[in-house]
C-alpha cells in the first residue's frame, strides 16, 4: 500500500513522482510521430503525404478504442486501494479483451483503404501509396491498443518507470528501423513507405512483449494471464460503460482540431502552414498537461478507493495548480518570442518565410491563452475519470467543442473576417467552455466518501 499523502506538499511530491515519467513518455511518443514525419519527408514528398493521411485514418479509429484501455486506470487504482488483487486482474483482462475485440472489428474497413480515400477526394497516387502503408499498419491496431491497456494498468499501480523507458526505447528503435528500411541502409532493401510501416509494426509488437513480460515477472501477484480466455460479463460491461465515453470524448477533441485544419486550408496555404507549426508547438507543451492529467486520474482513483474525500480534493487542487503554473510559464514564453519559435520550423531560404513568421507568430500568441484553458479542461477530464465519471463529461466536452467552439471559429474566421486568428480564438472559446463545465462537474460531484452520495455516470 502506498503512503497516503496528507498535506499539499505530500500531494505535490506524489503527483510529481508519478507524473514526470508519464510526461516524459508522452514526449517520447510525440517524438516518434515527429521522426516518422521528418524521415519520410526526407525520402519522398508523396510518401510523406500518403503516410500523413493514412496515419490520420488509423488514429481516428485507434483513439476511440483507446478509451477501453484508459478505463483500466481508475478501476485498477480503486481496486488496489482495497487490496483486491482479483479485481485488478478481472478489470485488466476485460480491458484487454475489449481492446482486442474492438481492434478486430475496426480493421475491416482498412482492407478497402484506397477506395475510401479516393471517395474522400484524395489524389490517386497518394491514396494508392496510403493503401500500401495501411495494409501493413493494419496489423498494428490490436498491439497498439494492448500497449495502451498495459500502460494504464502499470500507471494505476504507479509503475511508471517501465512506461517511460519502454517508450524511449521504442522511439530509438523506430529511428533505427526507419533509417535501415526506408532508405535501404546497411545492406537492407530500400522499402520507402513500406519500410516505415514495418518499422512501426515491429516497434509496437516489441513494446507489447516488453510490457507483458514485465507485468508477469515483476507483478506475479496479479496473475494477469491466469484464465485469460475466460469471459467476465459483469466486469466487461463495467469497463465498456466507463471506456466508450472516454474514447468518444477523445474523438470529439481530435475531430475538432482536424476540422480546424480543414477550415484553415480554406483561408490559404500560408495560414495552413502556420496552423501546423503552432499546433506542433502547442502539442509539445500539452504533453506535460496530459502526463499530469494521467497522474491525477491515478491519484483520484486511489482516493476514491479509500473513500478519502480530503485527499481527493487536495490532490485535485494540487494537480490543477501544477498544470496551471506550467501553463502560465509556457504562455509567457509564447507571448515573448512567438516569431522566434515559429522560425525554428521554417527554412531560412523559404520564399514565404516572412509571411509564415507573421501568421504563425500571431497564432502562437493566441496559443498562450489556448494553453491555459486547454490545460484546465484536460486536468478536469483526468480527475473525473479518476472518480469513474465519464458519460456526462463526454456530453459536456462534445457540446463545448462542436456546438460552441467550432461554430465560433467559423464565425470569427469568415463572417467577421478575422481569418486564422479568429479561427484559433474560436477554439479558445470552445475549450474555455469545456474547462468551466468540467471543473464545475468535478467540484460539484457529491462523492460517496464516508457517507455522502456518489454521482457518477
Describe this structure in words.
This protein has 2 domains: 1-231, no CATH class; 241-457, no CATH class. The chain contains 15 helices and no strands. It has helices spanning 8-43, 45-81, 85-106, 113-119, 124-137, 141-156, 161-183, 193-218, 233-267, 269-306, 309-336, 338-343, 353-386, 391-413, 419-444. Helix 1 (8-43) packs parallel to helix 7 and helix 1 (8-43) packs antiparallel against helix 10. It is globular and about 65 Å long.
Biggest beta sheet summary: none
| Mean pLDDT figure | 87
The portion of residues forming beta strands comes to under 5%
| Count of domains | 2
Bin the helical content.
Answer: over 70%
Structural class estimated from helices and strands: mainly alpha
Specify Rg, calculated over alpha carbons. 22 Å
Order of helices and strands: HHHHHHHHHHHHHHH
Descriptive keywords:
single chain; 457 residues; mainly alpha; 2 domains; 15 helices; 0% strand; globular; disordered C terminus
Short précis:
With 457 residues, the chain is mainly α. 81% of the residues lie in helices and 0% in strands. It folds into two domains: 1-231, no CATH class; 241-457, no CATH class.
SSE layout:
Elements: H1 8-43, H2 45-81, H3 85-106, H4 113-119, H5 124-137, H6 141-156, H7 161-183, H8 193-218, H9 233-267, H10 269-306, H11 309-336, H12 338-343, H13 353-386, H14 391-413, H15 419-444
